[in-house]
Specification:
heterodimer; A: mainly alpha; 2 domains; 9 helices; 68% helix; B: alpha+beta; Phosphorylase Kinase, domain 1; 21% strand
C-alpha cells in the first residue's frame, strides 16, 4: 500500500484505522519538525496552535495519504497549507493583522536584536509564498523535486521563487542592519 | 552567459540543483564577474544564518490537547474543524468582563434550554440560545455573530475551505439570487455539529445569516411561537421577529436555517438557490 521505503508503514496503517497509540507515535516522530516549520512560517506565538491544527488535519484525512508521496512530503504540504490559510485569515482581520507575527519589527534596530530575531523579523516581511519556499529549502532541506511536489508548482517556479526569496530577504536583512 | 542568465540560475547553482551542462558556464561567469560572485556569496551567507539558528522546543502538553480533540471527534463521529486551540486555552483565562457577561447569558440560556427541552435528546448540549441571537440580530448581525463565536470556537474561512472541512459543498457555495452578496463564512464548532455559518447582504442592504449543519440539530428560537409552512416542497418552521423571519428546514441531506428574511417570497427565492430540488 505504501512505498517500501516508508520506515513506519505499520504506524501509518494503524493511524488510518484510528489507533490512538499509533497516532501518538506518529505525532512524537514528527511534531518537532512540524512545530519548527510553523515557527518559521507564522511565528512562535501561533506555532503551537498551527502544529495542533496540522496534526488534527493529518489524522482526520490520513485515509487520503497514498503511496504516491512520502509521508514527510505530505506532512509538509498539510503544515504549509494550514499556515498559509492561517496567514490569509489573519490578514482578513484587521484587529489581528496588527499582531504581526513573525515580524513585529517595531522600532528595534538591527544592532539591538540578535541575528535569530533579525531573521525572524525579515522572514515576517516576505510574502508568505516566498517565506514558505525559502524555509522549506533552507530549514527542511527539501530538494527542488520535493519542493515542486509539496507546493504543487513547476521546477522552474521553484528556482525563480527561491531567487526572489533570497534576494528580497538579503535586502530586508541589510535594511535591518545585518552584515553578512 | 550574461549576468541576468547567471542570476536566474543562482539558486539552482547554490542548491546543487543545476545540471552539469549549465553548471560550468555559470561558474565560469561567476569567476569573471564580481557582482554575480557577490550575489552568490550573499546566498551562502543567508544559508549559514538560517542553519545556524537553534530550534525552539514545542510547549509541553500539546499532545494532551490534541488527544482530547481526537476523543471528541470519536465521540461525535464527525469531522470537525480545529476547536479550542492552544492559545485559546490561555486566552480564556484572561477574557474581559464583557465576554464573561456573554458567557453568563449563554449559560443562562443553556440552563433554560436544558430545563425545557429534555425531549430533544442531544439538542440539550447545544449551548447557544438562539432567542438571544434573534434578539440581537436586528440591531447588529455582527454582534449576534460575535455572541455565537464567543461561545463556540469559530474560524473565518472561504467557501472552499469550508467544503474541505465539512466534506460537503455548503449551500452558500451555490449562486445566491441576483443582487445578494456573500460577506463572510465561518465554521462554528457546536457540540457534535460543525456548522457552516454565513452572513449575506440582500439587495436592500439588510443582512441575512445562513446556518447549515449536517447533523439533526433543530435550531431553537426560545419561546417564540413557530409556524409551519410548505415552501418549495420543504416543510419549514418559521419564526417572526422584529418584522423579519427566521426559517429552518431539512434539505435533502442537511439542515438549513436562514435568519433575517423579509417575507415568504424571499424565503422561497433563497430556498430555490440555496437548496434546489435534486434532479
Amino acid at each position: 500500500m505504501f512505498l517500501m521505503t516508508e520506515p513506519y508503514t505499520d504506524v501509518i496503517f494503524e493511524c488510518q484505522s484510528g489507533e490512538r497509540t499509533a497516532q501518538q507515535q506518529l505525532y512524537e516522530l514528527h511534531h518537532r519538525q512540524a512545530f519548527r516549520l510553523c515557527v518559521r512560517l507564522v511565528g512562535e506565538q501561533d506555532a503551537p496552535d498551527l502544529t495542533q491544527q496540522t496534526f488534527l488535519k493529518v489524522f482526520r484525512t490520513i485515509q487520503q495519504f497514498s503511496d504516491s508521496s512520502r509521508f514527510e512530503t505530505w506532512l509538509h504540504r498539510v503544515t504549509v497549507n494550514e499556515c498559509l490559510q492561517h496567514i490569509r485569515s489573519r490578514n482578513r482581520r484587521p484587529e489581528v493583522a496588527l499582531d504581526v507575527e513573525p515580524a513585529g519589527v517595531g522600532s528595534e534596530t538591527g544592532a539591538a536584536i540578535e541575528s535569530a530575531e533579525l531573521l525572524q523579523v525579515a522572514l515576517g516581511h516576505l510574502q508568505p509564498e516566498l517565506r514558505t519556499i525559502f524555509v522549506l529549502r533552507e530549514l527542511e532541506e527539501l530538494s527542488y523535486a520535493e519542493l515542486a511536489e509539496t507546493l504543487d508548482v513547476s521546477a522552474g517556479t521553484v528556482a525563480s521563487r527561491l531567487n526572489r526569496a533570497r534576494t528580497q530577504l538579503k535586502r530586508l536583512l541589510t535594511q535591518l542592519g545585518w552584515e553578512s | 552567459m550574461n549576468c541576468q542568465q547567471t542570476l536566474d540560475m543562482l539558486s539552482p547553482l547554490h542548491d546543487g540543483e543545476l545540471s552539469a551542462d549549465l553548471r560550468e558556464p555559470v561558474e565560469q561567469h561567476i569567476r569573471e564577474c564580481s557582482s554575480c560572485a557577490e550575489a552568490l556569496a550573499d546566498f551562502k551567507a543567508l544559508s549559514s544564518l538560517v542553519r545556524g539558528q537553534s530550534d525552539t522546543d514545542p510547549p509541553a502538553g500539546l499532545w494532551d490537547q490534541l488527544e482530547s480533540v481526537l476523543d471528541a471527534d470519536s465521540t461525535c463521529g464527525a469531522s470537525v474543524a480545529p476547536t479550542r486551540t492552544w492559545r485559546e486555552h490561555f486566552r480564556s483565562l484572561s477574557r474581559t468582563k464583557g465576554v464573561v457577561a456573554v458567557a453568563l447569558i449563554a449559560a443562562f440560556g443553556f440552563a433554560i434550554i436544558t430545563h425545557n427541552t429534555a425531549e430533544h435528546g442531544h439538542d440539550e448540549s447545544m449551548a447557544v440560545n438562539f432567542d438571544q441571537f434573534l434578539s440581537e440580530f436586528p440591531n447588529s448581525p455582527e454582534n449576534a455573530q460575535k455572541l455565537l463565536h464567543a461561545n463556540y470556537p469559530s474560524d473565518l474561512v472561504d467557501v472552499d475551505q469550508a467544503a474541505l472541512e465539512v466534506k460537503y459543498r455548503p449551500a452558500v457555495a451555490n449562486a445566491l439570487p441576483e443582487g445578494y452578496t456573500l460577506d463572510t463564512v465561518h465554521l462554528v464548532r457546536m457540540p457534535c455539529c460543525l456548522c457552516v455559518e454565513a452572513l449575506c447582504t440582500a439587495p436592500d442592504g439588510t443582512r441575512l445569516a445562513v446556518l447549515e449543519h449536517a447533523i439533526d440539530q433543530p435550531v431553537w428560537f426560545g419561546d417564540r411561537p413557530t409556524e409551519r409552512c410548505d415552501c418549495n416542497g420543504r416543510a419549514a418552521r418559521l419564526v417572526r421577529f422584529d418584522g423579519r423571519l427566521a426559517a429552518t428546514w431539512k434539505s435533502e441531506k442537511r439542515f438549513l436555517t436562514i435568519i433575517g428574511i423579509r417575507d415568504e417570497e424571499e424565503l422561497a427565492s433563497l430556498m430555490r438557490h440555496l437548496d434546489p430540488p435534486e434532479a
